[in-house]
Design a protein that fits this description.
The structure holds two protein chains of two kinds. Chain A is built from eleven helices and four strands. In chain A, helix 6 crosses helix 7. Helices cover 56% and strands 19% of the residues of chain B. In chain B, 39% of the residues are buried. Chain B has one domain: Roll (Nuclear Transport Factor 2, Chain: A), CATH 3.10.450. In chain B, strands 1-2-3-4-5 form a five-stranded antiparallel β-sheet. The chains are: A mainly alpha, B alpha+beta. At the A-B interface, helix 1, helix 3, helix 10, helix 11 and strand 4 of A face helix 1, helix 4, helix 5, strand 1 and strand 4 of B.
């Protein structure tokens, strides 16, 4: 991510926020080195690993049940609602709705960019929020993107990852979807510390209820291609877990700047299959 | 006004310095960032030309889905290394698959993969592809980063292409959308399916054959 298109005014805003966030950041920084220790994996430089990393899924039995239940709920409720919405609303309108929903998430992004020690990014997202909420008519139009202030997503899961927290075991929560421990805790924090809920209105208000409803329908409509893609999967549970894990790791790498280490493409992994194999092949 | 700005700037500089000190210390514990300046011009040129061609066909509103599928089917061998992908998605079972099973799996996987890749690329209906960089994973193994825009895309979509080869001869072996590699995901999907069938590869082959006949791919 480049931070080149910064006007002095944006930088100034960023520094204000940086100063304000200092106290919070300081407390985060005190435990960050401890967290960062288990990040020191050898071979982080480019290169390939022998095989695709095995999934961290000790609760697979529970998760599979939960996934089945969640997908059932989706088929019964969310999918019909989302498809109804997609059928009656033209794409241009849906795009405006998505922009408005996204805009309300921007303050949370700002907060997390501050916590990640990215004052310029925080300044950019702050400016985006201000411009889009006003000139962009309550976020319906992404005017800021046309002013060279591109979107940059962030959340607490990414912030934890940035400071070295590992993903932890995978969990599937019906209606919330796939998560891992780090991003689940992050998601809870995203919800409980959301500045918009604080200052405009949380779930107890009409605004909060409407916002939650629209956010869920918008998210389901936006992720519909992923649901379609699952129909092609031999094991939809594993496909969801694999896709989510890769998606989140890539999202965390956006914050850390680490290079992605891919599995070697040509040699199959050395583990012997569970059945009928006489001996395990030696590790290279 | 100017004086105030000066003072403010100084305070801000101080705050920034303090912030830097804090996060600098934290960053020391982390390994040095692996920033790769190694790019591969040949691989980038290959993706720019070949992938753009596929995107253009899929974005063509004048063609029917059946026509697109036909063109895609013909373009696949020029673009992708299907035998290598076929082997990769089997994971550890690539070592134990029998020649008979492989003979059955190969054409079924090909049809399945064509559907899946076409519909994933088609989901976004972008028009322009621009190479923005590349990373050499190891010699002959390059990730080419592109951004797709135009068409129905509202936010520029980053897509990476993993290509193997050298010089001017390259083939795509995997494609990444939103951080998700298709072939890696397929490998985990397939290996798990075979694992859960007690190691019986035929179960996967039958399932892919079945889903090939009523797939979501390329028919929407």
């Amino acid at each position: 991510m480049s931070h080149q298109h910064q006007s002095p005014r944006h930088e100034a805003t960023g520094r204000h926020i940086a100063a304000a966030g200092l106290a919070v950041a300081a407390s985060l920084a005190t435990f960050a080195p401890a967290l960062a220790q288990d990040q020191a994996v050898p071979g982080q430089s480019v290169g390939t690993t022998a095989s695709v990393e095995t999934a961290n899924d000790p609760w697979e039995g529970f998760n599979r049940g939960s996934f089945k239940f969640g997908m059932g709920l989706d088929r019964a409720i969310l999918s019909p609602v989302a498809h109804g919405y997609m059928a009656v609303t033209p794409r241009v309108v849906r795009n405006r709705v998505s922009s408005a929903v996204y805009n309300l998430g921007e303050p949370n992004t700002v907060m997390n960019l501050v916590l990640q020690g990215k004052p310029k990014g925080a300044a950019r997202s702050t400016t985006r929020f201000i411009v889009n909420s006003t000139v962009g008519v309550l976020g319906l139009f992404d005017v800021a993107a046309k002013m060279h202030l591109p979107r940059r997503d962030s959340d607490f899961g990414q912030t934890f990852g940035k400071w070295g927290a590992k993903a932890g075991p995978y969990v599937y929560v019906p209606l919330m979807g796939p998560l891992n421990v780090r991003d689940g805790v992050g998601r809870a924090l995203d919800i409980f510390t959301d500045p918009v809920s604080f200052y405009v209105g949380g779930l107890s208000t009409d605004f909060g209820k409407a916002r939650t409803g629209v956010t869920i329908v918008d998210l389901r409509a936006q992720t519909d291609p992923a649901f379609q893609a699952l129909k092609d999967a031999a094991d939809p549970y594993v496909t969801t877990r694999s896709a989510y894990t890769q998606y989140r790791e890539a999202f965390v790498r956006e914050a850390t700047g680490d290079a992605e280490v891919l599995p070697d493409f040509d040699s199959p992994p050395p583990e012997a299959p569970p059945q009928g194999a006489p001996a395990e092949a030696p590790k290279p | 006004m100017t004086g105030m700005t000066m003072t403010n700037t100084t305070t801000r500089r101080g705050a920034n310095a303090a912030l830097l000190a804090f996060f600098g210390a934290a960053a020391l514990a982390a390994p040095a960032f692996a920033q790769n300046s190694a790019r591969d011009a040949g691989a980038e040129a290959f993706v720019q030309t070949k992938a753009q061609r596929v995107i253009t066909v899929l974005a063509n509103k004048g063609m029917s889905d059946a026509q697109k599928a036909q063109v895609f089917h013909q373009a696949v061998d020029e673009l992708a290394d299907v035998p290598r992908i076929t082997n990769f998605v089997l994971g550890k079972y690539a070592r134990t698959i029998t020649p008979e099973q492989r003979a059955r799996f190969t054409p079924i996987f090909r049809t399945y993969a064509e559907n899946v890749y076409q519909s994933r690329i088609d989901d976004y209906r972008g028009e322009q592809l621009k190479v923005v960089g590349s990373v050499v994973n190891k010699p002959g193994d390059v990730t080419v980063k592109t951004v797709i825009s135009g068409g129905q895309i509202t936010q520029p979509l980053p897509v990476s292409w993993r290509v193997l080869g050298g010089g001017q001869t390259w083939k795509v072996v995997d494609v990444q959308f939103k951080g998700i590699w298709l072939a890696i995901t397929q490998q985990q999907d397939f290996v798990s399916t075979i694992d859960n069938a007690g190691g019986n590869i035929d179960v996967l082959i039958n399932q892919l054959q079945k889903s090939g006949s009523n797939s979501s791919g390329g028919k929407r």
